[in-house]
Structure to design on (266 residues):
């Protein structure tokens, strides 16, 4: 799947190493620029350039912190089930928790996958409450930051629930099929086909959007290509030691595309 050779450690959270891959710099700058230049001028047309960029920087930082917390939920759930957690890495498409082994039972798989979207939805409610408080206290900058964060966490949680591997929804699908058929390999292949179908639809939908003139579709198509390549995980080989297979639990960010549209939901 994805390797993160060119990444550097920036700290630890709950004992888990947090790393940043160089491609994260691209998405972080694109996201900040998109919020400052497209999203905020629509939402707050009266704001100066400096306020817009500073606010966009805070939104971007809190967004990536939200992704780390989504991954941390996976990592802590995996560690509590005896799996070795290697690291959390922020990269071009969002965040990924690298776990040294595949889950040992469908129940473990279901819980480890589900806690990520649960974390994102919890953050959505938290930022939603902070937004309400900011409106009551008449703090427009804080209100704008929090409404953005509430919407993006909703999008991250919902997107990752789509039922195709390697998304959380695809892992939950694999857990259900694994429990029903008692066959890990078969469940993996089925969830992988679901992932390929989903990524094919994302590529087709993204390209259709580009033809319609919505350039954000290019990001969707690009994301679809990444998910396609990651949909079929390497099969677990019985001859390998338990620590040889690396299991990656990504939280795919919806990228800069949804952020400018997020203001429409205010
Ligand atoms: Zn996740």
């Amino acid at each position: 799947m994805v390797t993160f050779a060119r990444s550097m450690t920036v700290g630890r959270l709950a004992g888990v190493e947090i790393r940043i891959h160089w491609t994260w710099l691209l998405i972080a700058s694109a996201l900040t620029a998109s919020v400052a230049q497209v999203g905020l001028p629509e939402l707050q047309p009266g704001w100066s350039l400096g306020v817009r960029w500073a606010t966009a920087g805070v939104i971007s930082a809190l967004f990536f912190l939200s992704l780390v917390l989504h991954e941390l939920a996976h990592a802590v759930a995996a560690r509590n089930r005896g799996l070795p957690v290697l690291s959390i890495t922020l990269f071009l498409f969002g965040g990924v928790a690298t776990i040294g082994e595949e889950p040992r039972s469908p129940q473990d798989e279901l819980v480890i996958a589900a806690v990520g979207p649960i974390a994102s939805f919890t953050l959505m409610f938290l930022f939603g409450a902070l937004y309400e408080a900011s409106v009551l206290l008449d703090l427009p900058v804080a209100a704008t930051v929090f409404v953005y964060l509430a919407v993006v966490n909703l999008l991250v949680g919902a997107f990752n629930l789509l039922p195709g591997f390697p998304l959380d929804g695809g892992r939950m699908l694999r857990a259900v099929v694994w429990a029903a058929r008692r066959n890990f390999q078969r469940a993996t292949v089925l969830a992988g086909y679901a992932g390929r179908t989903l990524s094919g639809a994302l590529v087709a939908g993204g390209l259709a959007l580009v033809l319609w003139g919505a350039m954000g579709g290019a990001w969707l198509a690009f994301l679809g290509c990444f998910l396609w390549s990651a949909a079929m995980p390497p099969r677990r080989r019985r001859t390998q030691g338990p620590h040889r297979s690396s299991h990656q639990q990504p939280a795919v960010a919806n990228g800069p595309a949804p952020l400018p549209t997020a203001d429409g939901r205010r």
